[in-house]
Amino acid sequence: MRKQPPPLPVLALLALLCLAGAPALAQNPEGARCLIPPPVLSVDAGDDEARAALLAGHLGDMLAAELADAGFAVLRTSDGPYTDAEARKAGYRWLARSGLSIRGGIATVSLEIGDTQRGLVVAAENFAAWAGPTLVPLIDGAAGRAAAAAGKARHLSSEARPAPLEEPSRFLSPDEGARVELRPAPEGAGKLYAASVVGGEARLGPLPLPQGSRVQILVTKSGKLPYRAELILEGGGAHSLPPLRDDPPWGLLLGLGSGHLPGLRLGASYHPPGGWFFVPLDAYLALGLPAGPGAHASYRGELRLGFGSYLLWGPDSAFRAGLEAKGGAVLSGTIGSPAFVFLDPLVEPIALFGEYALSRRLLLRLEVGGSFALGLGSLGVMSRGWLASPSLDLALEWKP
Amino acid sequence: MRAAPQRVGRRHAGRLPLLAAGLAALGLQACSWLADDGLPAWLPYAEARRGLAADLADAGASALRYQPDLSPLDAAERVLIRFQTMDGHMHLFVLGAKDLGLIKAYVDPAAVFRGGTWGLDAGGEPVSGNSGGIVLLDAASGAAPVAATAPDNAYLFGAGVMNYVLYQSGSGIQIESAASPSWPSGGGSGIPISSASSDSFTLADFGLAEGAPRMLIQDTTTDKWIALGWATMGDLLASSDLVGGATSTTGWVGPFGPSPLGSRSWLAPDGLVYASRKDNAEGFDLTRIGFDGSSAAIHLDRSQDVAVSISPYSRYWYFYDGERELLVKARPWW
After folding, report:
1. Cis-peptide into A186, omega within 30 deg
2. Pairing with A350, which of A316, A368, B3, B62 sits 20 to 30 Å away (CA)?
3. Residues A256, A264: Cα–Cα separation, whole Å
């Protein structure tokens, strides 16, 4: 039978903590404290009460000893029993209950260790045996197993429930108005938290994340290159962010093209803020050496203006790909006397490109496109239609 | 804690179909309906050019017309280009040989213009003729008929002080002559083409290369061709056998296979030129075989709606692009 303890023992426990147990317990983590009231003893009339008391005392001793060996900070009380709420209120995460009942010479032993924070029984032992000397090793074994199980449960619960962040996470940035986004790692999965930098600081939270959480942050601002980093959030303190670098809107290209004649390509591109669109301007020059005794050197020059869009991967990615469309004209002619110049307008309605960032300012770019000659009659040399071979260009783009 | 910036990829699955469409569009490049690209092979050799679209429009020429005949006559500083339209009209343009400037345009000239080939008479004037008559091309007054006729498919030309009419007669050729400005009316001498062979022959072309006779003969039995040359008309007239008596010859060459152009072979100033094309290939090759045995070729990208003119009367060759209505005078590639 279990009695409901009066409030006074709670005060007594608190006093005991302050006078005797507090210094020792203060050295132990709060999550390891275990309260052990005395076993509940029940003996039938006719059974040996003295022997029963001895066995009950041994049960309490073994339970306390095994729990101490398992890393718990134990406190044995002289009264009890206690509920989970009473033990938790007194500052004890774990509560070890035990009982011994002897009826007709048969002893029934019960052990139960509970997690008062989660309201779970993490270890339990029940057995019955002859109430004689052979009961002692059985009690020892049961206490050891229960303590081991409780110790394992305590270890798992301390890893699964770190302390949450209690204060807002602060990010210091010189880029006023920049947007700071935060996602729990890995791979930026999970809920997005965001704030703007105001007065040199962006404040997020308190975030519903445990201390020590690894997060990914992204800092963006129009006209600037984005900044990504992984951080570990600790309680308190501020994270200093580096100033965002300017996103240069202009790029200059130098490359080799091989669509119709191998040639030199010079270009420039304008990238408006945002990092997804751009305006390319390309000039292309190829020379043909005289192929026979009566031949003059010939040349082909092209000038194209277009529009491009990145379709895969963001502005901070090392590799990006997309589509371009361009229009322009081709000048074909001879060098020498007499010299001729022919003009052929054409469009390049589709070109695929891929670029790889060798550094923040130098890109390697490969482009494959198909051109359509519009045909201008006797002013040009091209027939109307798609050009037989797609153009293939390899270039380096430098962003000053 | 500040970490180094990371370049992480983020795929945008929604944009993949656009890239796939781009790849598909580029795949269309493999279709057969493709235009030529690159610099045309004649461009490095171009000496003069003329767009004829305006000339044809001014002359009221129908857009439906056959490929033109070109007759370059360097000595007369003329290039004659003749269009036959499908509605039965003929348009003759006389261009200056140096820069292809338009000298005169004729619409439906006299019937004699419709047949035969152009040569240069002893006076150095362009002349053409058939059974309908003989005309000289006079830039000032136009066609000047001569009171004479010539057999159909005859070659009219002048050398020295004589005017000649040359045509095939059976297995040989007949050469008639008269003192300029008169023209012969029969007579003359016959020369067998090749008395050592029983094959059938056709006189494919004749002309003068700076006064030296040139002749192109086709052996229709073997489908081979030969270009023959003599230093003077006297040497030609003294020959008892054309193939055996020629001063210069390319030897028999061919067969050339099907030609994408109207002609398969042309007579050049010192050899012959033939056209050839690989099966199912765009464009064609022009190969010149010289009297010295040399061979040189040029590849032209298009064979549709184009015409080529090579003649012993000119040291240039001509290329006409019907799609662009562009006439180009070019230096030899050999």
Report:
1. yes
2. A316
3. 5
**Which residues of chain B from 257 to 296 reach within 8 Å of chain A, CB to CB?**
282, 296
pLDDT at A273 over 90: no
Cβ(A248)–Cβ(A361) under 8 Å?
yes
Angle at CA of residue B148, ends B127 and B92, nearest 5°: 35
User: What's the N-to-C CA distance of chain B in angstroms?
Assistant: 76
At B102-114, the pLDDT tens digits run: 988 888 766 556 6
Chain B residue nearest residue A218, CA to CA:
B5
> How far apart (Å, rounded) are the C-alpha atoms in residues B16 and B183?
79
Looking at residue A14, its pLDDT comes to 52
Nearest CA in chain B to A357: B7
What is the SS3 string spanning chain B?
CCCCCCCCCCCCHHHHHHHHHHHHHHHHHHCCCEECCCCCCCHHHEEEEEECHHHHHHCCCCCCECCCEEEEEHHHCEEEEEEEECCCCEEEEEEECCCCCEEEEEECCCHHHHCCCCEECCCCCEEEEECCEEEEEECCCEEEEECCCCCCCCEEEEECCEEEEEEEECCEEEEEEEECCCCCCCCCEEEECCCCCCCCEEEEEEEEECCEEEEEEEECCCCEEEEEECCCHHHHHHCCCHHHHCCEECCCECCCCCCCCCCCEEEECCEEEEEECCCCCCCEEEEEEECCCCEEEEEECCCCCEEEEECCCCCCEEEEECCCCEEEEECCCC
ipTM for the assembly: 0.74
Residue pair B51/B62 in contact (Cβ under 8 Å)? The answer is no
Predicted local distance difference test score (pLDDT) of residue B6: 36
Give yes or no for B102 touching A (CB within 8 A): no
- Per-residue burial over A217-226, b if 16 or more Cβ lie within 10 Å, else e, is bbbbbeebbb
Q: How far apart are CA A343 and CA A340, in angstroms?
A: 10
pLDDT at B113 (0 to 100): 64
**CB of B274 within 8 A of CB of B254?**
yes
Residues 6+ apart with CB under 8 A from A70: A147, A148, A150, A151, A154
* Closest residue to B326, CB basis, from A338, A350, A378: A378
Rounded to 5 degrees, φ, ψ at B287 are -120, 130
Query: In chain B, which among 43-82 make CB contacts under 8 A with chain A?
Result: 43-53
* Smallest CA–CA distance from A299 into chain B, residue: B39
Take residue B214 and report the two structure tokens written for it. 């040139």
**Helix, strand, coil percentages for chain A (3-state, nearest 5):** 20, 45, 35
**Closest residue to B39, CB basis, from A259, A300, A389:** A300
Flag if A314 and B52 touch (Cβ within 8 Å).
Answer: no
Q: Which residue matches tokens 């983020």? A: B10
Please state, in angstroms and rounded to a whole number, the distance separating the CA atoms of residues A357 and B213: 70
R_g of chain B, CA atoms, integer Å? 25
Mutate which of B37, B50, B328 to disrupt the A interface (most A C-beta within 10 Å)? Answer: B37
Q: How many CA atoms lie within 13 A of A3 on its CB side?
A: 13
Residue A152, amino acid: K
Q: Which residue of A has its CA nearest to B305?
A: A383
In this predicted structure, what is the pLDDT of residue A256? Answer: 77
Backbone angles phi, psi at B102, to 5 degrees: -75, 125
B326 shares contact with chain A (CB less than 8 Å): yes
Give the β-pairing of A277-288 and A297-312.
antiparallel
Order across the sheet with A213-220: list the strands.
A193-196, A179-184, A213-220, A227-233
Contact indicator for B158, B166 with CB cutoff of 8 Å: no
Interface mutation target, options A216, A261, A316, A381, chain B, most CBs of B under 10 Å: A381
Instruction: Decide: B274 and B264 in contact? Cβ < 8 Å.
Output: yes
pLDDT computed for residue A10 by the predictor: 54
